Amino acid sequence: MADSPRRSGRSRFTVPGPPLAWRRAARGIGFHGRPTTYVDKESESYRALIRHHARRAIGDAVLDCPLVLVVRAFVAIPKSWSKKKRVAAARGELRPATVPDVDNYAKMVMDALEGTAWNNDSRIVDLIARKYYAENPRLEIEFWRWTVDRE
Q1: Residue 127 lies in a domain
Q2: Within a domain: residue 2?
Q3: Separation CA 29–CA 67 (nearest Å)
Q4: Which of 52, 69, 76, 100 could join 21 in a cystine, given CB atoms 3.0 to 4.6 angstroms apart?
C-alpha cells in the first residue's frame, strides 16, 4: 500500500525479497595503487531497489522536515527448523535475535532514501526498527512527518 506524503502525511511501501542490512564500505587499492573505499555491488543494488520502490510509492516528494521512520525486516525462517518451531516463528512467537543487527537494516534504508524521500537522514528524529521471521522475506518501510505528541 502506498500513500502519497502530500495527501496523507504517511508513506509506506514494501521491498520484496530477503532484506539486506547495511555493511561497512570496503577498502582497497584503486587506480595507480591509491587507497580507495567502495561499496560492494550487492549493497548498491539493494539501495537502488529500495529507491525504486520508494519512488513508485511516493513519487518525487523529497521531505525536509523532522520525520518518524519505521523499518520492519522480515527474514526467512530457517528451513532446518522443525515444523513446530517454523509455525511458532511464522506466528511471531519467535523473533530473530541473530546477526545482522536490527539497526543495520535501518541504516540501509536511511542511506538509500537520502535524497529520494528526505533531504538528509539527520531529519529522522524518531526511529523504530524491528526484525521478524516470515515465510515471505521482505522489508517494510513507513515514514511520516513528526508532530508533537500532546496527551
Answers
A1: yes
A2: no
A3: 38
A4: 100
Residue 1 grid coordinates: 500500500
pLDDT in tens, 65-115: 999 999 999 999 999 999 999 999 999 999 999 999 999 999 999 999 999
4 within domain boundaries: no
| Domain count across the chain | 1
Hey, CA dihedral for 79, 83, 85, 86, is it positive or negative?
Answer: positive
Half-sphere exposure of 145 (CA within 13 A, CB side): 12
The long-range contacts involving 41-49, CB below 8 angstroms and separated by at least 24 positions, are: 43/108, 46/20, 46/108, 46/112, 47/108, 47/111, 47/112, 48/112, 49/15, 49/17
| Farthest-apart Cα atoms in the chain, separation | 62
Inside any domain, residue 3: no
Amino acid identity of residue 137, one-letter, is P
| Beta-strand relationship, 124-134 and 67-76 | parallel
Query: Which residue reads 509455525 in cell numbers?
Result: 87
CATH code of 73's domain: 3.30.1330.70
* 17-63: pLDDT as tens digits: 999 999 877 677 777 788 877 678 999 999 999 999 999 999 988 99
How much is the pTM? Answer: 0.86
